[in-house]
Amino acid sequence: MMEKGILGVVTTLISNLLLMLIVLLHISFRKRPPHTGTQNQYISLSKTLHQIYTSSEIDISVQGGQDTYQYLSLLKYLSFLLLIYSIFGLLGLLPIYNSQKIPSSSSSLSQFSIESMESQDVNLLIPGLCSLFFSLGAYALAYYYYKQTTCSNDYFPRHEDMENEFARKSVVLVTGIPKSLAPTHLENLMKQEIDMYSLGNIITINVVPEIGDIERALRDKNLIEYKVKYDSFSMCPQSNEFWISKKNEVDMTISGLRNRSPEKNSGYAFILCKQPMIADLLIKSYEGTQSLGISMDTWKMNPAPYFNDIIWKNSPSDEVMSWFKSVFFNTVFIFLFLILLTPLTLVGIISDLLKELEFSSNFKSFITFSLPSMTISIFYSIIIPLSIKFIIDKEKNHLFSQAFASAFCKYICYSIGIMVFFPLLEAVTLESVIEKLAYVDITKWNITMVTNIAMVGEFFVNFLVSMSIGSNFLDLAVTNCYFTQGYEMYRKGYDEKSAPVFDFTYEYSRVLTILCVVLVFSIAMPVILPFGCLYVSVKYWIDKYNLLYVYRVEQCPGKHMQGLVVLFFLIAIGIFQLINSGIFMASGFKALVWLGGFLALMGIATIISGILIYRYWDPYHPDINCEISYKHAYIHPFNSYTLA
């Protein structure tokens, strides 16, 4: 009889293949609106596949920028790395584990258990070397990504990008300005005050006005436009006329507010210098004084943030959660997803239920592993990102990079907790979690975590099958719906505001969390490696399709993205070494602990050397004789962003 573990994988694979078939049939037979004119023609499926296959990462990055290139390159090289891991794992580890003396009652998928390994067994040398090789490969990929993002201008020497970065380094952000002063009065005063520090190298100074009234009017206008579209769809002419009249009233209000001179400022100003060297000199040498009765000693000169930080618009103040609500929602979110939706929680609940119903063992195996893995993959792909987006939108984040980092940290904490720590602690119920944590010896914590690693790994093999096929093709079904709303297939035909935004924060987190899961179970359950490779490979082609045809890309803060992704790599490698050191310590092979520590130090030294290289390497040298225009500096960002 087929082993229960293999039966679970087969049934999960069949279920997901059926789901994939349904999605493809849905995409193929869904009726598209007829095109009008030669510019709105649809291209055939064969031409679409051919263009996806022939388009390189650099070709796609022409539309999405260097973030697109870096993301797709990481997916491609990660799939190659996992393919190499799969070859080493299947050829080097499975024969050793299958040769161990295991009781016939064992249903483990890889025929591996810690108890079957003898202390200081020579066969442990090969798993140990594989562990070191896997760590070294992950370190190399992390350093490749770091070097790639550091030297991104070698890949993208476009003049416009260089002008934008040059402009950002030439802008000074002034904070601490009294909000009671009128912007026009302050601009003239600042011009006189700062000329002495800048030696006449200031192009323009703009104080950001307070435009709260216009923001509220624009929000009302957006709501009214939505009502007009909805009533047009519902064929309600009377209601439509009412909302059109309301829209005209709001337009008149906005026009009057725009023509009125602002009486207050937002407390911020932007100074555009001729060169980054002048901006740096102004930041370091400015000392506030008092002029015309106005105290300037509270003014602070700062480097300009990234452009997304400048135009970042958080939720209106009346919708932002208070500190208490933010803590409450985060706490509820943690208990909901780290406890109730932990994989073994579902497995334990369903298993206890099936015992009472007395189902057959084969059906019980499918329900116990396949159904929870499919459920977790759906929650992980849909519910978690929606929940985190809700919390981020309601939190008070002053900068886009701040919101970006907050979302990334939430993904790391929640995903790693769900996928690694709580399953390995046998988190079947909340009581078992508390009991487990209460009696764990901190010096043997890693050994305690690997006592049920085979059972958890068996679940995650099914989970990766669901993620590789079911979750990826559900993503494809969701993005395909944008082609059925009257838009042409090429993304350049989209209205920029109607195309969805590709969320790099979530996609990076999902890919790197799966990498962490694959690494953690790669030694104890090597059959998980090819399924991890399958997931990343399928995701590479689907995301290539999405970035080429469906999504628009908003540039992410480069250093924040770079630092967080590399940090996530280090966390994943650290967890991998922690778990596998527990495996070898439980088996009596303590020499691998020292080798793993040496490898960790080598990886940290590599990252530090990369940081030092980046710190002293600057392609935008201040001696470059280049003046920039007003349009590249986004000097009046709130006016251009909010009022446009």
Strand order of the largest sheet: 2-3-1-6
Could you say which overall geometry the principal axes of the C-alpha atoms support?
globular
Strand content: under 5%
Number of strands: 6
Helix run count: 24
Low-confidence runs: 30-43, 101-108, 110-115, 153-162, 230-235, 482-497, 613-644
Mean pLDDT: 66
> Helices and strands, in N-to-C order?
HHHHHHHEHEHHEHEEEHHHHHHHHHHHHH
What is the count of distinct domains? 2
Amino-to-carboxy terminus distance: 69 Å
Structural class: mainly alpha
Give the fraction of residues assigned to helices: 55-70%
Largest sheet: 4 strands, antiparallel
Instruction: Output the radius of gyration.
Output: 29 Å
Structure, explained:
The protein is mainly α and 644 residues long. The chain folds into 2 domains: 60-157 and 332-360 and 388-452 and 476-615, no CATH class; 163-313 and 630-642, RRM (RNA recognition motif) domain (Alpha-Beta Plaits, 2-Layer Sandwich), CATH 3.30.70.330. It has 24 helices and 6 strands. The protein has helices at residues 4-29, 45-54, 57-64, 66-98, 125-150, 152-155, 159-169, 183-198, 212-233, 237-259, 276-285, 307-310, 323-340, 343-357, 361-394, 400-424, 430-438, 445-449, 453-480, 504-522, 528-550, 558-586, 591-615, 637-642; strands at residues 171-175, 202-209, 265-273, 290-291, 294-295, 300-303. The strands form 2 sheets. It has a 4-stranded antiparallel sheet with strand order 2-3-1-6. Strands 4-5 form a two-stranded antiparallel ribbon. β4 and β5 (294-295) form a beta hairpin. α16 runs parallel beside α22, α19 packs parallel to α21 and α20 (504-522) runs antiparallel to α21 (528-550). It is globular and about 85 Å long.
